């Protein structure tokens, strides 16, 4: 989901931190297919609806609200 702050800047609501070890647990949990695979998984801001499902299953709590 994209939101605007007072300066009109777009912000991501969830972001995966460097703690990610690419286990893949979050991928099937995302209802909007916002997560992309990689050495560190990435959440695409335009698709994320801020539901928190990825964070709920992550063993290292890498997806965090921002
Ligand atoms: Fe997908 Fe929800 Fe995580 Fe956003 S917060 S990446 S919509 S599972
Ligand atoms: Fe990375 Fe956590 Fe997703 Fe696993 S569940 S791929 S550690 S963000």
Please provide a written account of the structure.
The chain has 66 residues and is mainly beta. The protein has a single domain, classed as Alpha-Beta Plaits (2-Layer Sandwich), CATH 3.30.70. The protein has one helix and six strands, in the order E-E-E-E-E-H-E. It has one helix at residues 53-57, and strands spanning 2-4, 10-12, 14-16, 35-36, 42-43, 63-65. A two-stranded antiparallel ribbon has the order 1-2. A hairpin with a 5-residue loop joins strand 4 and strand 5. The radius of gyration is 12 Å and the shape is globular. It starts with a strand and ends with a strand. The structure holds iron/sulfur cluster (SF4) (2 copies). One iron/sulfur cluster is lined by residues 16, 20-26, 41, 57-58, 60, 62-63.
Count every helix, treating DSSP H or I runs of 4 or more residues as helices: 1
CATH top level is: Alpha Beta
The amount of helix comes to: under 10%
**What is the first-to-last residue Cα distance?**
11 Å
Q: What is the count of β-strands?
A: 6
Question: What's the gist of this structure?
Answer:
The protein has 66 residues and is mainly β. It is 8% helix and 24% strand. The chain has one domain: Alpha-Beta Plaits (2-Layer Sandwich).
Structural key phrases:
two-stranded antiparallel ribbon; 8% helix; Alpha-Beta Plaits; 6 strands; binds iron/sulfur cluster; 66 residues; mainly beta; 1 helix
